[in-house]
Write a structure and sequence with these properties.
It is built from 15 helices and 17 strands. The protein is an alpha/beta fold. It folds into two domains: 10-289, UDP-N-acetylmuramoyl-L-alanine:D-glutamate ligase; 297-426, Mur ligase, C-terminal domain (Protein-Tyrosine Phosphatase, Chain A, Alpha-Beta Complex), CATH 3.90.190. The chain is globular, with a radius of gyration of 21 Å.
C-alpha cells in the first residue's frame, strides 16, 4: 500500500521527492539496489555512458546526447542539478519528462520506496525514477551523469556501461570525497567496470595515474582525450568552430574548457562506434544544436550579459579566462552570489582582479551566504561593492553600472542561474 496520496501532476511528484531532502546524502548503494530490485531492475534493460568528474560533466553529457540523438538513437539524458524546472534532469531526445509521466512513475516508485525499512534519499529516488522513465521510453542508450563522487553515487548501480567518461577533476565536496585531487580521482575512477572503455579529460599526471591503475585492475582500455586533437579554427561570443580530423564543427558553447570537453566527447563517440556508429553529419548537427544553459552563456548584448553557474576555483579560473578571451579590455561588473559551504575565497581571488565593481545577491538556497556578508568580504578588493536585496534588483544594478557598452558576468552558484536567466531574458533589448 502507498503511504502517500495519489500524485496528480509533476508539481506534486516533485514535492514528494523533495520531502526526503532532509535525509541528506547517505553514502551506500544498498537502498538504490533494493528499490531497483523491487522495480524489476530497469537498469539491466538499458545501456549507458556513465559520466563522472568535478567540472564539465553536464556540458559533456549534453554534447554526447545531442550527437547520439542526431544519429537517430533514442537517447536518455540524466543530469543534475536543474536550472529552471526539475523535469530538466531527465530527458529523452532533448525532450524533458512530461509532468503526468513524472507523477505516474513517482507514484509507483514512491509506493515501493515507502515500504522499505530505510527510505531512499532524494537523489536515490530521482535516480530510480529516471531509470524507469528511460526503460519505459525504450532508450537505445542513456547518458548518465553521476551526482557527487562515483564509488558510492547511486548511479553506480548500473551494469558495465558502454563507456566511462571522467571529466576534469578538481577540489570540490572534499568533506565527502577526500582533500586531494588524487583521492577524489580514486572515488570517481571507482565506477570503472570490467572491460569497459574509459575516456579521460587530460589532467595532471598524478590524477591520470590513479585512473590508469583503476583501468588496469579492470582490464579497461584508457583513452586520454587531448584538447590538441581538436583545433580551434575561430571563435566569437556566438560560439566556436573546431577542426576534428579535417571536419569543421560549430559548437554554440564558449570557452577553451569546452574544447577540452569536446575532445572527450569525440573520443567517446569513437570508443563506442562499433556498437553505436555515428556519421560525420550527425556529429556536425548534434554539436551545432547542443544547448547547455548557465555555462558562460551570453544572454544579451547591450550590455553584454553572461551567466555562469561555476562555484569553485577551477570554474572561476575558466570564467576569468573566458572574460579575457571574449571581452578583452572590458572590466566586467561581477554579479555574485555564493553558498556558504563553498571555497568562496579561492573563487573570489581569481575573478576579483578583473572587476570594475561587484553587486552581490543571496542565492535561493538554505545554504546561501547572505549578500551583505559577501559584499563585506569583497570590500577588501577596494572596488565599488553593492549588496542587492533581490536577484532582479541585483541584475538591474549590475547592468546600470556596466552601461550599454559594458559587460556583466553573473557567477558563484548554479542556484541563482534560473532566476537570473528568467529575468534577463524577459527584458527587452539586445
Amino acid at each position: 500500500m502507498d503511504k502517500h496520496p495519489p500524485l496528480q501532476d509533476g508539481a506534486q511528484a516533485v514535492e514528494y521527492i523533495h520531502s526526503f531532502s532532509w535525509l541528506g546524502s547517505r553514502p551506500g548503494l544498498d537502498r538504490t539496489r533494493q528499490l531497483l530490485a523491487a522495480m524489476g531492475n530497469p537498469e539491466k534493460k538499458l545501456r549507458f555512458i556513465h559520466i563522472v568528474g568535478t567540472n564539465g560533466k553536464g556540458s559533456t553529457a549534453a554534447m554526447l546526447a545531442s550527437v547520439l540523438t542526431a544519429a537517430g538513437y533514442t537517447t536518455g539524458l540524466y543530469t543534475s542539478p536543474y536550472i529552471h524546472r526539475f523535469e530538466e534532469r531527465m530527458q529523452v531526445d532533448g525532450e524533458e519528462i512530461r509532468g503526468e509521466e513524472l507523477a505516474d512513475i513517482t507514484q509507483w516508485v514512491g509506493g515501493l520506496a515507502d515500504q522499505m525499512e530505510e527510505h531512499p534519499t532524494e537523489f536515490e529516488l530521482v535516480t530510480c525514477v529516471a531509470l524507469e522513465f528511460f526503460r519505459r521510453r525504450n532508450c537505445d542508450i542513456v547518458v548518465l551523469e553521476a551526482g557527487m563522487g562515483g564509488r558510492l553515487d547511486s548511479t553506480n548501480v548500473i551494469p558495465a556501461p558502454e563507456a566511462v567518461v571522467i571529466t576534469n577533476i578538481g577540489l570540490d565536496h572534499t568533506a565527502q570525497l577526500g582533500n586531494t585531487m588524487e583521492a577524489i580521482a580514486a572515488e570517481k575512477a571507482a565506477v570503472i567496470k570490467d572491460g569497459c572503455p574509459v575516456i579521460l579529460y587530460e589532467q595532471k599526471e598524478s590524477v591520470t595515474q590513479v585512473v590508469r591503475e583503476a583501468c588496469q585492475a579492470h582490464h579497461a582500455t584508457l583513452t586520454i582525450a587531448s584538447a590538441q586533437d581538436v583545433i580551434l579554427e575561430r571563435e566569437s561570443p556566438e560560439g566556436q568552430w573546431w577542426n576534428w580530423k579535417g571536419d569543421s564543427l560549430f559548437v554554440p558553447l564558449l570557452g577553451d574548457n569546452q574544447r577540452h570537453n569536446g575532445a572527450v566527447v569525440l573520443h567517446t563517440l569513437e570508443a563506442i562506434s562499433h556498437k553505436y556508429p555515428v556519421s560525420a553529419q550527425a556529429i556536425r548537427e548534434g554539436l551545432a544544436r547542443v544547448r547547455w544553459p548557465g555555462r558562460f552563456e551570453v544572454l544579451r548584448r547591450r550590455p553584454w550579459f553572461v551567466v555562469d553557474g561555476g562555484h569553485n576555483p577551477q570554474c572561476a579560473a575558466t570564467v576569468a579566462d573566458n572574460l579575457n578571451r571574449y571581452f578583452p579590455g572590458k572590466a566586467p561588473v561581477l554579479l555574485m552570489g555564493v553558498l556558504e559551504d563553498k571555497d568562496r575565497a579561492g573563487l573570489c581571488e581569481l575573478v576579483a582582479p578583473l572587476a570594475q565593481a561587484f553587486v552581490t545577491i543571496t542565492p535561493p538556497s538554505p545554504r546561501a551566504l547572505d549578500a551583505q556578508t559577501l559584499a563585506n568580504e569583497l570590500a577588501q578588493y577596494g572596488k565599488p561593492t553593492f549588496a542587492a536585496p533581490s536577484i532582479p534588483q541585483g541584475v538591474e544594478r549590475a547592468m546600470e553600472l556596466a552601461g550599454e557598452d559594458g559587460v556583466v558576468c553573473a557567477l558563484g552558484s548554479l542556484y541563482s542561474v534560473g532566476e537570473i536567466r528568467t529575468y534577463v531574458l524577459s527584458k527587452k533589448g539586445d
